[in-house]
Amino acid sequence: MLCWGRNWAGQLGDGTKEDRSAPVRVSGLDKGVKAIAVGFAHTCALTEQGGVSCWGSNWAGQLGDGSTQDAHEPIKVKDLTADVSAIVVAESYSCALTAQGTAYCWGLNDHGQLGAGSIGNRLAAVDVRGLDKGVKAIAVGFAHTCALTEQGSVLCWGRNEYGQLGDGTKEDRSAPVPVRGLDKGVKAIAAGGSHTCALTEPGGVLCWGRNEHGQLGDGTKEDHSAPVPVRGLDKGVKAIAAGFAYTCALTEPGGGLWWGGNRDGELGDVTIEGRSAPVPVRGLDKGVKAIAAGDSHTCALTGPGGVSCVGTHWQTVQERFIYALPKVLMRAVGSSKFKAIASGGDHTCALTEQSSVVCAGDNFYGQLGDGTFTPRTNSAKVTAYTRPVAAIAGGEHHTCVLTTEGGVLCWGRNQYGQLGNGEFGISPTPVAVVN
Predict the structure, then answer these.
(1) Which of 52, 122, 277, 327 has a CA-to-CA distance to 230 between 20 and 30 Å?
(2) Which domain holds residue 23?
(3) How many whole angstroms separate alpha carbon 364 and alpha carbon 307?
(4) pTM, to two decimals
(5) pLDDT digits (tens, 9 = 90+) for 290-343
(6) How many domains are there within the chain?
(7) Whole-angstrom Cα distance, residue 209 to residue 197?
(8) Which of 159, 157, 150 is nearest to 177 (CA)?
(9) Smallest Cα–Cα separation from 189: which of 142, 124, 241?
(10) In this structure, what are the phi and psi dihedrals at residue 288, rounded to the nearest 5 degrees?
(11) What distance in Å separates the CA atoms of residue 410 and residue 398, rounded to the nearest whole number?
């Protein structure tokens, strides 16, 4: 396992607190890692044997080793040595799900978000009370946690000032409580800042919690401490996603319906007004294959192979434009259609079927990779590389690609060494990640 970037709390796991501009090996994890999860200043790894090790900041016990001392190298989470199948990392706490469906959490616990039955930070993994088997998935909000069981029921715990636990009250809970009316039939859950939503087997959507911006989609702006149906979405939804103060649904025909906060036009309904019920994203009523979200804009990959975006777009650092309906930033040319998209803070890149990359948006740090620092309202081809690309990923102000040979190239901002090329200077063209 290799890490690079900022390292003030030892979150790179190389035994030091030195920032690294090129990949360094995480001590003791040279093989056998199958998944990783990153918090604000700590990191956890799941091994092939089902054990969990963490390192970095540990002020709230988020490393799970029984102490509050930061660790510059991986340390094993107590009592989690095997059979872990998934891990989730919040800002200052972590949770693990075992192959048997048992849930464990550790770290910050000021609102009972660990589900241990009491308040108080936990320095080692504790089992979530009553969830010793049958958990299928976990979703984490700002300070509340929810679990989906194999039977299709939903339980939540933690902070509840807006009713985000869905138990009919606004009292914090330090152990799981059933969400009212959701004892079966749920196939997916999503947690936003202070609200939660569930996707039912027939394709309906229910939400509960904070509703200041209409993010529950019930036609009001009143908080609800128990699930309420999202207006007009009783069937036909195949996926849901929750942002901090808004929610999105993808329909079976491939159309987008969004609701909630809309300050930056992220709902795509030709306005910048919040919506308390789902509204169609103009021009994206069918054929959407994928969605990628940046800081305040969302982009969709459409059937014909184009990329359309809504929300905030920066022409320059001083000029901010709001696209309140989808604007086509990139178009497929001839047979060179797009097959994947990735969004950064204020830029978006697309991968073509011919394995080349084009980008559009802000370019103050060279994150478009076209050799300039000029922002683009239309796509610019990434230059100075010849190897075919297999995948793309967007950071806040930088972009990386995985080549078909297994190498990595990055470009853009580099103040913490995020380009991985052994230097700290900005690069407007792709540079190879060392090692």
Answers:
(1) 327
(2) 1-133
(3) 21
(4) 0.61
(5) 766 655 677 777 766 677 777 765 444 445 555 555 666 676 655 568 888 887
(6) 2
(7) 9
(8) 157
(9) 241
(10) -75, 130
(11) 7
